Amino acid sequence: MRMSATDFQNSSPSLAHFGRAIRSLRRDHIQVLSMEGSATPQHNPNSNLEQELESFQKQVTDKFLDLSSVGQDDLLSLSWVRKLLDSFIYLHEEFRYILHDHRALVSKPPVDRMMTDLLERNVKALDVCNAIRDGIDEIRQWDKLLEIVLCALSNQKSIGEGQYRRAKKALIELSIGMLDDRDSNASVAQKNRSFSRNSAGRDHHHHNHHHRLASHFRSLSCSVSRNWSAAKQLLAIGNNLNAPRGNDLVASNGLAVIIFTMSSILLFVMWALVAAIPCQDRGLLVQFSIPRTFSWAAPLLSIYERIMDESKKRERRNSRGLLKEIHQIEKCTRLLNELGDSSRFPLVEEKEGEIRHRVQEVSQVFEALKDGLDPLDRHVREVFQKIVQSQTQGLDTLGRLNHHES
């Protein structure tokens, strides 16, 4: 059962709670073993590990508190998504350092099994990164169409019918390119009919043309197979992701805590990317089951709930992505489209002023995408590279274990 952010509002678990729980479990475990005569307490060579684990939990909490403090208008903006990826990259490096410093524990049960599960999740996350980069390329194509609209309607002494027709063609292509993958053919045809007051005799032609346009947009770049599904990939990453039990906490000297934490962060970041960016067969039906002992659970689940609420809004349900700038494209181009269709040329001064206002909105989102897409793409690429590095490190550690066993 998924716990919601409200479950954590009245609780403030201390960062030391988990460390105390581990120490208590370890003492109980040692006492039981000693009473049974099957083991004797030994000095723990990893005396600083508990402090490192508590420090890591605090860093995760601080990062997600910061991410959750953003206002609703800036949630899932280009800058916020980049901040999320920055947080992942930072925490991932801290995670790798801890594993490297305690690699002797990593190659022993049960940590070796947990690491194998994480490595499998990593491989699936790499696919998501590739799909997201395809989606960023798709948004770049939308930005090029926005530029055509601006070239047609900006810096003109007066906006004539010819300029509007040129802008209109780009607006139609943009609207079709931004159609949701799951829209039926009937829905495509219905949306096409809204593009022009004089389209009644050309519906069939428009349907075929726009269906080809939509297919063209999605074939511009594709790093995943045709039957690949972002929704299924997220479910696979989250499959059997459960908080560690007492015995595993003791046997892993607490490393199970940060492996579960990093696995949860990996799932959340991939989920947020799929929520924000166009990709094949998007779906957000992932559940996060995080015990209240994790101090970062409340801010993470708070962000999760807010994104889910956004996805359920009527105007966002059929969106290709929840990125703030995508919503801005949808809104300002729709209003510009409707305004132009309802106007007679030559334009009266009031109508021309309204169109220029909408064009200014188009210009703002065009500039935001022009400045923000390349940095976002670099961040996704860096996340990909960091995951690959951790794969190499993890496989190397587990490979040495297998070599010694053989």
List keywords for this structure.
about 400 residues, mainly alpha, about 70% helix, elongated, ROH1-like, membrane, transmembrane helix, transmembrane
Description of the structure:
By secondary structure, the chain is mainly α. The protein has one domain. Helix content is 69%, strand content 0%. It is built from 14 helices and no strands. It has helices at 16-36, 49-68, 78-101, 103-106, 111-153, 161-177, 185-193, 203-219, 230-238, 246-251, 255-276, 297-311, 324-341, 349-405. The protein starts with 15 loop residues before the first helix and ends with a helix. Residues 185-199 have a biased composition (Polar residues). Belongs to the ROH1 family. It is found in: Membrane. It is a single-pass membrane protein. It holds the Pfam family ROH1-like.
What fraction of residues sit in β-strands? under 5%
Structural class: mainly alpha
Q: Which percent range fits the helix content?
A: 55-70%
Give the overall shape, derived from the CA principal axes: elongated
**Poorly predicted runs:** 1-19, 25-43, 183-207, 209-220
What does the radius of gyration come to? 26 Å
Number of domains: 1
Task: Give the strand tally.
Answer: 0
| Overall pLDDT | 80
List the secondary-structure elements in sequence, H or E.
HHHHHHHHHHHHHH
Through-space gap between termini: 42 Å
Provide a count of the helices.
14
What profile does the largest beta sheet have? Answer: none
Family: Belongs to the ROH1 family.
Keywords: Membrane, Transmembrane, Transmembrane helix
Main location: membrane
Subcellular location: Membrane
